Amino acid sequence: MTRQTWLRLLAAMVLLSLFIAPGIGAAASYVPDIEYLRLSPGQQLSAAQAFERDDWKNYEGNNPNFGYIRDTIWIRMPVKSDPAIDLLEVQYSQLDHLQFFLFENGKQVQHYETGDHLPFAQRPIQDRHFLFPIEKTSGRNYQILLKVNTLGAMQIPVKLWNTTEFYEASSVQSQLHSVYYGILITVIFFNLFIFTALKEAVYLVYALSTLGYLLLIGNLNGTAYQMLWPNYPGLQNHAMLLAVPLAVTFTLLFSRLFLKLRQTAPAWNRLIGFALLLNLIIAAYTFFTDYSIGSRLTVAFAIPSCLLLTILGPYQWYKGNPQAVYYTIAWGALTIGSAVTAANKYGFFPNNFFTTYGMQIGSALEAILLTLALAMRLYQERQDKVVAREAELSAMAARRSAELKLMDNALHNPLTGLPNRSSFEMVLNDLMMRSPDCRYGVAIIRLNNLDSVTKTLGHRNSDRILELASKHYNAAIRDLPGALPVEQNDQHIYFVAALDPQTFACVVNANTAEAAPRAVISTLEVLRFPVDYLGMQIPMDVRIGVAVFPEHGKDANTLIRRAIIAEGSDRATERGMAYYKPSRDSFSADRLTIASELRRALTDNQLALYLQPKLSLSTNTVVGMEALIRWPEKMGTIRPDEIIELAEQTGLIKPLTRWVLEQALNLRARLKEQGWDLGISVNISPNNLREPDFPMFVQRLMSSFHNHQGTITFEVTETSMMQDPANSLMALKSLNAAGIPVSIDDFGSGYSSLSYIKQLPASEVKIDRSLVTDLATESEDRVIVQTTINMCHSLGYQVVAEGVEDEATADILRDMGCNMIQGYLLTPPLPFDKALAWLHGADGRQQGLG
Ligand code: G
Ligand code: G
Ligand code: MN
Question: Which positions fall inside the GGDEF domain (predicted)?
Answer without folding.
Answer: 438-583
